[in-house]
Amino acid sequence: MKLYWFQVAPNPTKVRLYVAEKNAGGAGIALDDVVVKLPKGEQREAAFRALNPFGQLPVLELDDGGAIVESLPIIEYLEEVWPAPPMWGETPRARARARELERIADARLLAPLARHIHATRSPIGLPPNAAVAEHARAAWPAALGYLDEVLADGRAFLCGERPTVADCTLAAALQFARFGKVDLGLAADFPALARWDRAYREREVARAVLTL
Ligand SMILES: N[C@@H](CCC(=O)N[C@@H](CS)C(=O)NCC(=O)O)C(=O)O
């Protein structure tokens, strides 16, 4: 199988963190890396669009020639094929909570952050748009406050003592904020999140994937 990705792009980073976490737990998922240079527009070339007509990363190309697009279905597919260690939790309630936190990190933080960065200093050359940037910025304090409260009891990961996909999404979002030079105010306003961010990034798994 091949994973198509580009460094720091948050959706591929989410998948790469997930695979690194799984493999640190012994899953042994073997993926060949294919780097698609987004700033050069390689995602819009015909060969790549044959894999993903939407021209976006990540893509998982399967050994039978098929492809899965969208970060979450890629993760769900890998999780079904390699169920251990479980990256959504051990019980229905725990899995629901992990999925809830993952959606909050994605839809309420990563997505508006990406809209903001693409409207201010887009790495793929999209035109600046002050109104979009401002509107997007208004979305993330609520998500940061919520996640900060979750982490305020000092837990190591969003769902407790083991990482879940929610942590992968959150780490991918925070790295993209650093890339986009967006000050989320973690140190001043969201101390538990700042602590989680530091601790998560110090782990070997994260250091193998994150560069910022
Ligand atoms: N919902 C998609 C979003 C994919 C996406 O936005 N990918 C970005 C990188 S993080 C991309 O490829 N952007 C390049 C472009 O749109 O030209 C997912 O979760 O995979």
What does this structure look like?
The chain is α+β, with helices and mostly antiparallel strands and 212 residues long. It has 2 domains: 2-81, Glutaredoxin; 92-207, Glutathione S-transferase Yfyf (Class Pi), Chain A, domain 2, CATH 1.20.1050. 54% of the residues lie in helices and 7% in strands. The chain has 10 helices and 4 strands, in the order βαβαββαααααααα. The protein has helices at 10-24, 46-49, 71-81, 92-120, 130-137, 140-151, 165-179, 186-189, 191-202, 204-207; strands at 2-5, 32-35, 59-61, 67-69. A 4-stranded mixed sheet has the order 2-1-3-4, with helices on one face. β3 (59-61) and β4 form a beta hairpin. α4 (92-120) packs antiparallel against α6 (140-151). The chain is globular, with a radius of gyration of 17 Å. The relative contact order is 0.15. Residues 9-11, 38, 43, 55-58, 70-71, 124 line the site of glutathione.
Q: In whole angstroms, how far apart are the ends?
A: 27 Å
Spans of at least 5 consecutive residues whose pLDDT stays below 50 are none
For the CA atoms, what is the radius of gyration? 17 Å
> Average pLDDT across residues?
97
Helical run tally: 10
Number of strands: 4
Tell me the count of domains.
2
CATH architecture of the largest domain: Up-down Bundle
Structural class: alpha+beta
Main sheet specs: 4 strands, mixed
CATH class of the largest domain: Mainly Alpha
Helix and strand run: EHEHEEHHHHHHHH
Major sheet strand order: 2-1-3-4
The rough form would be described as globular
> Ligands in the structure?
glutathione
Q: Which percent range describes the beta-strand content?
A: 5-15%
